[in-house]
Design a protein that fits this description.
With 218 residues, this protein is of the alpha+beta class. 26% of the residues lie in helices and 35% in strands. Strands 1, 2, 3, 4, 5, 6, 7, 8 and 9 form a nine-stranded antiparallel β-sheet that branches.
């Protein structure tokens, strides 16, 4: 991913938090030079390995698990907020006119080695952990045990789980960090009218000190 230093996010904690906020992943694979992608919710295990691990599941009917061998490298994309930025958002437009349209966005690219999960206990753990994570904020969380055990067993037979050991994390937050304070304030004012506060916070940021080019496992 092309990423100028002023848009680069390399803090591991920040990358993990981003994945937690945007858990619907695009899982990209390649077989015989033909790329493919699916979209699946994943759960980040921050404590696993050096950079963490991603866990989720696909339909057993999906041919991906048959064509991608264990320990194959995969690419996982996480998409955050995005917004068009008009030149009219910049106060500097009225002084020198040296502005053009752009698009602000936030993404994280994760690379890792995938391992497929077939055993019943492993699949049950993946489903339970994903469910508990996304139900936690509800007033009356649903649990896997709320459904009949025989029904859950049938559903588990219809999926294949995966565990992705992360080997590389790279974040790009294109959020007007290359603009002046006054122009960033103008972008924030423009986006406040059409986006929720959390999205605006992701899309407008002050410059941060540059760190290493990317976060990799040793």
């Amino acid at each position: 991913m092309y990423c100028p230093n002023h848009f680069r996010e390399d803090r591991l904690e920040a990358l993990h938090e981003f994945i937690g906020r945007h858990p619907l992943a695009t899982l990209v694979t390649s077989v015989d030079a033909r790329p493919d992608a699916i979209h699946v919710p994943v759960l980040l295990d921050r404590a696993s390995g050096t950079l963490g691990a991603l866990r989720g599941h696909v339909a057993r009917a999906n041919p991906m698990w048959r064509t991608i061998a264990d320990n194959s490298q995969v690419l996982v994309l996480f998409h955050g907020a995005d917004a068009y930025v008009s030149p009219s958002s910049y106060p500097s437009k009225h002084t020198d006119g040296r502005v053009v349209p752009t698009w602000n966005y936030a993404v994280v690219h994760a690379r890792g080695l995938i391992r497929w999960i077939h055993d019943r206990d492993g699949l049950h753990q993946v489903v339970k952990t994903l469910t508990d994570e996304h139900e936690a904020a509800r007033a009356a969380p649903w649990a896997v045990t709320d459904a009949p055990a025989s029904y859950i067993d049938g559903m588990l037979k219809a999926i294949v789980g995966f565990d992705i050991e992360l080997t590389e994390l790279e974040g790009k937050i294109k959020a007007s960090q290359n603009k002046s304070d006054i122009d960033r304030a103008g972008v924030r004012t423009a986006l406040d009218a059409t986006h929720d506060p959390a999205a605006v916070d992701e899309l407008v940021r002050a410059p941060a000190p540059c760190g290493p080019l990317r976060t990799q496992s040793s």
